[in-house]
Amino acid sequence: MSWSLGEIEGLAKKATRGAGYSWGLAEEAGRATRWLCAMGLDGAAALAQVLAACDRAEPSMIRPARLAAPWAAPGGRLCPISAGATLCDLAETLAAGEVITLEDVIEPLLLYPFVAAAAEMTGTGLRLSYEGVTITRFERCSYLSAADPRRPLAALAEVARADSAPRGLPVRRAWRGHIEPGDAARLGAMAHRTYAPDTEASRLAGAGAGLTDND
Amino acid sequence: MTGQTMTATAEATQVPKRAPRDVMRLARLGSFHQSRLSFMRTLLRRLRAENWRFETRAFEIDARGTGHAIYTAHGPTHSYSLVAFAHDLPAHLRSDRVIATAWDATFTLFDGIPTEADIIRLARNVPKQEAGRISDRELSLSRANRSVRLWDYVVDCLAQGTQPDPARIHEVGYLMRTTAVYGSGKFGAADREQSAARDECRGPFQVEMLSVYLTRAFIMDLVEHMARTRSPDTAVPLAPALRRSFGIGNSTGLGMAPFLIHHPVLIHQWINARETALARIRSLPAAAPAEAAAFRDYAYRARRHAQDWTSEHPVQLAKLAELRADLDRLCDWLPEADLIHDRPWDRVFRWAEESCSLEGQEQIASLLLEPYGLLVDELTSTMSCEEQDCMRIQGAMPLAQLRALTEDIYDWALAIDWRAQDPRARVWYVSEAKLEPRLGQRFDEDLDDYEQPLCPGRDAARLHADLLRSDAATVAEFLLTHPQHRHIIRRVQITGDHPYAEIRDNTIDAGMMPIDMLRAKLSFFGACHFDPRSDRWLRITMFQHAPFPEELSEGNADDWTYPMLDGSTVDGATDAEDMA
């Protein structure tokens, strides 16, 4: 089924919140998933994997323990949403040329939208490398070195400034996204956790019945 | 300093825009009025200026009133088609609530001209609304219900060959009201970014406004068609002036309220445009006699418009009484007021601030724009934005700066005692039934786990408490250990750059009125005659007295909101002439 990018962002945001992340990080996950889908990549599948692995995790166990590289999660595996948001928060550090390495990142492809955002914010080229894949943001265009850049886990990922013409092919923008039915169901189930059970009382009071609506 | 230099200095100084801490209060937002910058008016000015052409490509409606119609608008580079489905709805299924499952008519705005195959596909999906699925060829999805009070009456009159009583039309103002108009990306529709590069789609809600404008034309054709079908020998069409007095209604509920909080940069762009326009006009050193005369005329017309505004809601009734009194006083004062010299519009507005209610002040703010299209209409091009570019956290910001920003923007929230129950009495949540946003009572219902991030004041207070305890140097360092504040930090930083982005009031207070948020947004649409039906949903009228598509090239495309004083329509034809 063809999804609008807005639908994908909304589903990803709610699912991430449903998995126990803060609203602010859920917003980041929504935008990151949308960004990957707009690159023609299966961002929703990547997110579904991350949320399955990090469902209701203690936040401090899946995020970098400190800002000094290498980044590693106290719980063993890094969540790319938490780590990605932090990467983007350090956009100026990356633009200044600091290299950040990350250990044991789940679905490292999901780091890329944050790297790209940091590149946009600072007007610098940045590249993300892991497991034989390099994705570069250079002069407002994304370049992919592999046709399928998804990996379940990266033992080591690296983010660094890209000062010269990137490797790989430029990515064409997609206007619609695709979600496999199984992923849609898994994300949908997590999103559903953000909805309050419907009751007759809430239906009447919650939306404000007031005067008649049939005249 | 000599008197001469003082005058010169005063003239060179611009009147500043109003302060966000004054503008962004709920009571004031809930008193906003439409203006030249409103989206409906922007749309009709464009359709007229670019000579858009309109055609009814299909009207296949049977005697029971079921079938479909296609209304196509042709612009300079693209065509857009309203595909309308008319239904025979049993009365007991008619409801304006989002949780309804059937409607009198359903619509989509198709990007281009639909083929037969498109119509077949849309006929299977559009009538189901949220339960159906549309595609990236469609730009909107909407539905409308009849006004039970008027529909049968108007069909009966026309079938018998008589015109309906203007007084009865006046009581309602429309034959159908839309109960939801979904746009960008909803239920499979095209995302806004897919068409946002086109001139006619760039402005906010232009697609949705076009859809509603064509919907009004369809509804008027439908009512005449039903009369003709019932009694082909005696039926007459509506008299043109009377026809134009029908707007299209709309019922809007809580679902719209979160929009203002979810789109802070966009809201800033809208309000900044209006405040910039007001400041420009207040800064004018003098006015031409024709401009002064035009303002007087608009003031008298606005008084009449306020007299025509009906509501049963006690809060709105009180506000209407104040508005009418304000406009009476304005109109009494205007004949003797000097509107030519000595920064006349700043004096008018300061008079309003000193002597009028919020309703009156905001009405006068909008009225001041009316004579000055050349000065302010171009601001409509600043009312959209690339929201995504503004959503990124500035991690390098020193924590002390974030704290100073928080204290400046949310001083009102830091002054609230959040341990008390009233300031946090409400919870915004989404119900699993049709994903409808709702507002619950925190201390009566078990809803905390489902709370939506729609309470910036409380969140800012929580952030501030943690900022005071933190020794982190930068926002990035603080966020690593405080991810729960990421949402509100984004808002603080956005509002630092976009001062009208944030509502500076408590959106979960026991006394908060969601209709204030609805009205602020609807006023930018161009809606009039706000009629709250409770504290959380209201009805409005759109496009009332506007020329119909086929009249646009001849008629007045912009100056139709306020009624003309002599009872004539915007084209100068009076009801009496039309009815003869």
Automatic annotation (TrEMBL), chain A:
InterPro entries (UniProt xref): DUF3726
Name used for this protein in its record: DUF3726 domain-containing protein
Automatic annotation (TrEMBL), chain B:
Top-level taxonomic group: Bacteria
Descriptive protein name: Uncharacterized protein
